[in-house]
């Protein structure tokens, strides 16, 4: 094969790998979504309330996974409550979420179990350590949805923490302008340009729960549980105490907004200070060999020529 053919094949392979990697990242990475490349939605969920759920699964694959999950979902109430809390923290409030999650765990486990033997069937030879590798892939596939859920919760908590100071500032402005707490929450949560934020979605859910008849204190506690963040739980406790004791809510909001802003600045400074340390490893692995090759190659070539002349 001539060099031109090598170059064409290399270009095609690199292009294919890049496109597949980009599609996988846009599909499975929570912080990067395809919708971010398009215009923002015009409203926070349209005319359908976020407290409503679809009566049937959206696709045939989801229906199949839900059927699988019904047979393996745990019956223990404690485990169900823990998974339900984790799904709520990840932003999934559908009651069928636990069934779909366990169906996905079993489906991924079965795919991992039969992937290695199927690969051996394709190459038409017996692979070594087939049982051990298949069991390892089975365990990895069973835990893969849990890893995805953990990453989803982590990214969502980070987004809530970053948005918390701005939301508290807006609530403080609305309250000091004369609005009540419920009206201020509704005014902040209904902003179209911020409706895709997880914190605004949770505030809208809390507001709709209060309008539906749930006591405000229970709705606030539910907000803290769904977010799963210490800062939000402290804010909720302060709101509950202000409501019970009748203290001015504007001062409470001002204090928490300033504290949240300082903590966000400290997190940014911490990440900035860790950036040079994280850059050491890729620098050593990728840049230093190339630097030594460029810097020492002429000298090595000169030494090789000198040794060859001495030998001759």
Please give the structural blueprint.
Layout: H1 3-28, H2 60-72, H3 77-89, H4 97-123, H5 130-176, H6 181-189, H7 198-211, H8 216-227, H9 230-245, H10 249-311
Helix pairs in contact: 2-4, 4-5, 5-6, 5-10, 6-7, 7-8, 8-9, 9-10
How would you portray this structure in words?
It is a single chain. The protein is mostly helical and 312 residues long. It has a domain at 161-272. It is built from 10 helices and no strands. Helix 6 packs across helix 7 and helix 9 (230-245) runs antiparallel to helix 10 (249-311). The longest helix is centred in the last third of the chain and has 63 residues, at 249-311. The radius of gyration is 28 Å and the shape is flat. Mean pLDDT is 80; it is low at 36-47.
Keywords:
77% helix, single chain, 312 residues, 10 helices, mainly alpha
| Averaged pLDDT | 80
**Sheet with the most strands, sense and barrel status:** none
Structural class: mainly alpha
Spatial shape: flat
Q: What is the string of helix and strand elements?
A: HHHHHHHHHH
Tally the beta strands.
0
- What fraction strand? under 5%
Low-confidence stretches: 36-47
Distance between the termini: 37 Å
Radius of gyration, whole Å: 28 Å
What is the helix tally?
10
The helical percent reads over 70%
């Amino acid at each position: 094969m001539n060099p031109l053919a090598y170059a064409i094949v290399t270009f095609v392979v690199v292009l294919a790998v890049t496109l597949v990697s980009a599609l996988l990242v846009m599909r499975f990475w929570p912080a990067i979504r395809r919708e971010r490349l398009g215009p923002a939605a015009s409203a926070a969920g349209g005319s359908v309330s976020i407290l409503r759920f679809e009566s049937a699964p959206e696709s045939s694959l989801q229906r199949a996974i839900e059927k699988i999950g019904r047979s393996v979902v745990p019956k223990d109430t404690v485990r169900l409550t823990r998974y339900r809390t984790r799904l709520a923290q990840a932003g999934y409030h559908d009651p069928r979420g636990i069934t779909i999650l366990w169906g996905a765990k079993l489906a991924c486990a079965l795919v991992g179990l039969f992937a290695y033997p199927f690969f051996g069937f394709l190459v038409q030879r017996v692979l070594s350590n087939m049982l051990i590798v298949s069991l390892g892939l089975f365990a990895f596939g069973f835990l893969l949805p849990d890893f995805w859920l953990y990453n989803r919760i982590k990214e969502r908590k980070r987004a809530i923490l970053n948005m918390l100071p701005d939301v508290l500032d807006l609530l403080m402005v609305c309250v000091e302008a004369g609005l009540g707490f419920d009206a201020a929450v509704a005014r902040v949560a209904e902003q179209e340009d911020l409706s895709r934020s997880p914190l605004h979605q949770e505030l809208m859910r809390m507001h709709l729960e209060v309008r539906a008849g749930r006591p405000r204190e229970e709705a606030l506690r539910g907000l803290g549980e769904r977010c799963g963040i210490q800062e939000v739980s402290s804010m909720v406790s302060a709101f509950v105490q202000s409501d019970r004791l009748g203290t001015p809510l504007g001062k409470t909001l001002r204090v928490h907004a300033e504290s949240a802003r300082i903590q966000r600045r400290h997190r940014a400074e911490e990440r900035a200070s860790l950036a040079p340390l994280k850059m050491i490893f890729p620098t050593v692995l990728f840049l230093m060999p190339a630097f030594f090759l460029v810097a020492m190659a002429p000298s090595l070539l000169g030494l090789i020529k000198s040794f060859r002349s001495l030998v001759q």
